[in-house]
Amino acid sequence: MASSSRGDLFGRIVGFLVFVLGLGVILGVLWIAFRMFQSPNLLPRVATGPGASELTGLTVGFAILLVKIVLLFLGSLSGSMLMNRGIGLYFAALQPAPPRGDVHEPPAARTPEPR
After folding, report:
1. CB 48, CB 60: distance < 8 Å
2. Are 76 and 3 within 8 A, CB to CB?
3. Gap between the Cα atoms of 12 and 20, Å rounded
4. Distance CA 41, CA 53 (A)
5. Which position has the higher pLDDT, 99 or 74?
6. At a CB cut-off of 8 Å and minimum separation 6, what does 106 contact?
7. Helices 9-38 + 54-94 axis angle, to 10
8. Residues 6+ apart with CB under 8 A from 83
9. 11: burial class by Cβ within 10 Å (0-12, 13-18, 19+)?
10. b/e for 22-43, b at 16 or more Cβ within 10 A?
11. Alpha-carbon distance 38 to 26, whole Å?
12. No. of H helices and E strands in the chain?
């Protein structure tokens, strides 16, 4: 039986696809970060209305920048978790399945004999 030594082909394909999906998420996050930090207006000055101070606009712009950085971090974290899950699925599918007739039952628990 050559197929039992190779493991589960469908599981390996699914694991590889999940790994590639995680890699795509990581590359997408890196591309978004590259475009974001390439912009000359990294810290935009947000106009908050007439008579508003420049400090308020800078504070709002800085808060927007922090939210973008946190979202990039969460995207890279989720991509990393997807890649890890894909690797786990792939290598779990490489394990050969035990033969169908070879089922091991745990030994029966010994009960103490009455005295």
Report:
1. yes
2. no
3. 12
4. 19
5. 74
6. none
7. 160
8. 18, 19, 22, 23, 26
9. middle
10. beebbeebeeebeeeeeeeeee
11. 18
12. 3, 0
C-beta neighbour count of 50 within 10 angstroms: 5
Q: How far is CA 44 from CA 6, 66, 73, in A?
A: 56, 12, 20
Q: pLDDT tens for residues 29-64?
A: 999 999 988 877 766 666 666 666 777 777 888 888
Mind listing the pLDDT tens digit for each residue in 76-97? 999 999 999 999 999 998 877 6
Amino acid, single-letter form, for residue 89: L
CB-based contacts of 6, cutoff 8 Å, min separation 6: 94, 96
